[in-house]
Structures are given as C-alpha cells and as structure tokens.
Amino acid sequence: MALRCIAIDDEPPALALIREYIAQFPGLQLLQTFDDAISGAEYLRQQPVDLLFIDINMPDITGLDLVRSLQERPLIIFTTAYKKFAHEGFELDAVDYLLKPIASERFARAVQKAIEFHEYKSKPRYEQEESLFIYSEYRMMKINLQDIESIESLEDYIRIHRVNDKPVLTLMTLKGVLEKLPSSKFKRIHRSYIVAVDKVKSILNRKVTMTSGAELPVSDSYTSFINEWKKQS
C-alpha cells in the first residue's frame, strides 16, 4: 500500500519539484500540496497522512513549529536551504533532512528510508527483530541486526560496532537500545557494553573476545552471561 503524503512549501518552484519527484514513486500517493503552513496544518489535523514533506523556513509558521504542534505525527522529511536547522529536525525524529536544491538521487534515498521504516513499523514484533532504525548525523539509518557485533555506551550516546563497516554513533542510552533488541541475540555484559551473542568468539578470565578480535570486560553484575554462553557453545 502506497504511503499517503502531502507537501508544504511556500516556494512554488520547490513545491513543483517535490510534486515531480513524488510522481516518480509508485510507493507514494500525493494527497495534496500547500504553499502556506496554516492550511497544511489544518489538513493534517483532519486527514490521515503517512508522510509529510515540509519546508522549515516559512513566513507564517516554521516547519519545525508546525511539526511540534501535531498530536499525531506522520513520518517527516524536512526540506530547507539552511543546514543550521538540522539539529532541531533530528530532535523531532525526522526521517531525513534535505537541503535545497534537492537532487533527485538524494530525494530517492530519503523516500526509500521512509518506505522501509513505515513497513518496519507495520510488521509484527518478531519480524521487526531483523533490523534496527536509529538516528545518526541528523538522518534515520537502518542497521541490520546481523551486522552488529557490539554496542558501547558513551554516556548519553551509544556507539554501534558493526561487522566489516565503520561504527555508528547515535543519541540513545544502552538501556534504551537493549529494549529494542531481541533478548535471545543480544546480552549486556557490562554497564558500558552489549554484545551480539553469535559474535562472541571466546571467553577467558571474564574477558569476552569478539570475532573482530576486540576484547570486552564482563562486570560482576553480568557474570551469568558467561555460564549462559558456555551452555550454548
């Protein structure tokens, strides 16, 4: 089923370009476009919408303030000529943040993320356990759980270490990410570390060696993991 979407932008050329891009995606159904935020906000409060393309810098109300005012938010893709607003868009859990002028390839990547995340949310819980969606560098990112080797706590942030790829940093606690992961596949071994059970190569003297060669400590509170792992091995 196609995502129902609307676009709000006070610049007619920008709105026309978004209409043109949306028309190229069978996975999107454009319901309406608006050249003022007030009319767009009223429509959003009355009609179900899956995805909103919205400019940030508009004269009557900013796109950021409009999104904040919504009790039920659709997926959001912000469009703007000003990169300085990226952090605020990130705080509102935007799927993506597109800088004008918007290239078609960049638009396509943002839409694909929105479609994937919508499909992910629609799946039963057991099927969601194949991937994890996080926000990194002001954009939503999909990570396959099979690619995760370990997760490291950095106070308010976590660093996700991946197999054959660079680590990803995101604003989240270790407790928060653990709640999103299948408990049979990921275990906490320390106040600062979660490991993927199938990526543990060996354990010796309360040191876990991962398949990458990384060595991680097991703290007193999580020594039960050692016995659990030995039984499975």
Written description of the protein model:
There is one protein chain. With 233 residues, the chain is of the alpha/beta class. It has 2 domains: 3-122, Response regulator (Rossmann fold, 3-Layer(aba) Sandwich), CATH 3.40.50.2300; 137-232, LytTr DNA-binding domain (OB fold (Dihydrolipoamide Acetyltransferase, E2P)). Helix content is 30%, strand content 33%. The chain is built from 8 helices and 15 strands. The chain has helices at 12-22, 37-46, 63-69, 86-91, 104-122, 125-128, 174-178, 224-232, and strands at residues 3-8, 28-34, 51-55, 75-80, 96-99, 131-136, 139-144, 148-154, 157-162, 168-171, 186-190, 193-196, 200-204, 207-210, 215-217. The strands form 4 sheets. It has a 5-stranded parallel β-sheet. A 5-stranded antiparallel β-sheet has the order 10-9-8-12-11, with no helix packed on it. The longest helix has 19 residues, at 104-122. The model has no long low-confidence stretch (mean pLDDT 91).
